[in-house]
């Protein structure tokens, strides 16, 4: 058996790699842990599922998920639409890059959450301030990665294009942009992660729907199960969105160096 | 002259990449730019392509001064050491890249791509992506792509450096044949003298930013003009005090000499008979014997000087420590600026004797 696993993956290796064991392990620990405490402190997996079921039945969970997803998609999409072209331009003009980089490295250390109060004052308590916050959070990874992607274009590709008669604009569109695709894709994926983190924070501070609101309000009703339901939904959404992006990336962008 | 470089100077900071480089090339020739790394050969190639700009001096291509012409207007095909194929384009799109810039119609491009794939011996690979090709195949596609827009001059930067030894030999011969077929003026850079000698019509030898010698391979091999060339070309042992050797006298001002394997004969005499030139031979001790396929490569110590020679397979077996007789037919003596061939006096005398 042991020698067998080395040549081609055996049953044990397959199960380990699938992650099923990891799930069983975490559920077991969680379940055992919950035996020691009451459901107000640590609800068991089953109690969490029950809470979820209640919330699904009365429609709250769907509504909150929809509200959160719709917000982060808008903020994130805006970041992509602004960050990618801007990054492409900044990355391809070295002097502009020099101008922008110090500003970037300064704001990199200002987390979106720190700006919540400011954004509430500037954009009001509605969706706008939350979308702005998500935009801010996901813009940076997208923008920075796009700049890096363009700036790290293999010089010999640019030279090859130039020798074949390509002028600046053509080199930008046929060499620099395609060369940056892999980095842009990474930026978009990282941006998605930031967007999800940020939406919860924003909704926890202000508003009356969304998963952040659900998690935050559970303390008012002493429903720890709701908080767990919200957290679980977030994890599932994040995981699914990332996997979806990964799937699309691997399928369509293979030749751009996306692995 | 088709291509002419006149007094080219180029520095990168303190580093002189080109120090008064001048040479010219006839149309249709295949030229090898040969030199050790850092000798400035790639810089010359890049300046010809317009990828680098000389600090001073003029470059002419086909009688036209191209100093101020950017690379995208020079009409040059450039093959990079790293291939530089666009990884996100398939073979067809890669080869068609330059043709699209020339605004050729689709039917023309299709024909041209097919024609080039036939030329480089890889028909049917249109749909493949660069990462689905072997190193040798990539280099062929890179050549096809460079040739597609019909350049007047083809430049190749160490075209075989990244390819393994066996394929490299095949590709060399193939490149020579392919370039002959199209008749395009070509310059390639290499640090491998076998490659240069085998492939090029003419070799330009560079060292420390200067051109040391220009000529056809045989001429350079037989008549190295500078000390550097004498040592760089062929397998060379540099010795001092060559006047201690029998049959050689000191040439004024030239203290060092180069001896190549083909200049010496190694003998192991077991009889007591008389041998030609025996009185002019040196006594030596074998220090190393290496099997080289068609012969042995033998290093012999002659009174503190080490020389390398070849020894036939069929002869008396040689072992380390064996006493041998070494006949040195000729050597190159050199000083700072020039070289001179001197022949063993025994050969002069015997010539006289026979006449």
CATH superfamily of the largest domain in chain B: P-loop containing nucleotide triphosphate hydrolases
- The CATH architecture of the largest domain in chain A can be given as Orthogonal Bundle
What string gives the helices and strands of chain A in order?
HHHHHHHHHHHH
Low-confidence stretches of chain B: none
Q: What's the oligomerization state?
A: heterodimer
The CATH class label of the largest domain in chain B is Alpha Beta
How would the global form of chain A be characterised? globular
Discrete helix count of chain B: 9
The biggest sheet of chain A, with number of strands, parallel, antiparallel or mixed sense and barrel status, is: none
Strand content of chain A: under 5%
Main beta sheet strand tally, sense and closure of chain B: 6 strands, mixed
Mean pLDDT of chain B: 89
Helix content of chain B: 25-40%
**How would you classify the helix and strand content of chain A by structural class?**
mainly alpha
Given the structure, what is the number of helices of chain A? 12
Compact overview of the structure:
The complex is a heterodimer of chains A (259) and B (355). Chain A is mainly α and 259 residues long.
Layout of SSEs?
The complex is a heterodimer of chains A (259) and B (355).
Chain A: H1 2-7, H2 11-18, H3 20-36, H4 45-57, H5 60-92, H6 94-107, H7 116-123, H8 127-151, H9 155-163, H10 168-205, H11 211-217, H12 224-252
Helix pairs in contact in A: 4-12, 5-8, 5-10, 5-11, 7-8, 8-10, 9-10, 10-11, 10-12, 11-12
Chain B: E1 3-12, E2 15-25, E3 30-34, H1 41-49, E4 56-61, E5 64-65, E6 76-79, H2 91-101, H3 106-119, H4 135-147, E7 153-157, H5 165-182, E8 185-190, H6 193-199, E9 202-207, E10 210-215, H7 217-222, H8 227-232, E11 237-240, E12 256-259, E13 264-267, E14 282-291, E15 295-302, E16 305-312, E17 323-328, E18 330-334, E19 339-343, H9 345-354
Parallel strand pairs in B: 3-8, 3-9, 6-7, 7-8
Antiparallel strand pairs in B: 1-2, 1-4, 4-5, 9-10, 11-12, 12-18, 13-17, 14-15, 14-17, 15-16, 18-19
